[in-house]
Amino acid sequence: MFDFLTGVVGLVYFVSISVATRQHFRSDRYPLGMYVISALSLAGLGTFLGLAFRGELVFAGLSLALVVAAQGLFVWAVRHSRNRNLTLAMDTEMQSETIIRTGPWRYMRHPFYASYMIFWLACALATQHIISVIVFLTLSAIYTYAALREERVLSSGPLRKDYIEYRETVGIFYPRLPLRG
Length: 181
Fold this sequence. Notes:
This protein has helices at 2-23, 32-53, 60-81, 111-127, 130-156, 160-167. It is mainly α and 181 residues long. The longest helix has 27 residues, at 130-156.
């Protein structure tokens, strides 16, 4: 029963990010990289749901907690980025017009990517299936590439000065821990 609940919550998360991809983000075209992300995501989701609905998850409790955390971070990020004209991942044509510093952006520069990586980690831990592990590792690499590419664009564009200052104080996918000297 707990596996089934974890599967349902994971499916709800996946549907919410799928809807947001079309409604919350803007791009003139669907970038090629998004097709790769979509294909990998469907393979990962199929593996996760198949094992969840058969009751074969390994760490269902931990995975459920991670999926809930990913969903919470995602919703928080959506609330603070409405009407900000964010572009789809891997869009090389368009550029961000603003730096968001509220909500999760106070703590991390890429909360959407962080949310997605937490979800795929949850799937890999829950299933311990080679497909889930490959999807987690590959999508994490793709999201990291996309984040770094976006940062290069912001660091060289009209928002350069503000973004470089912001980047020095906020972590990329998780809060920056204060260093004691």
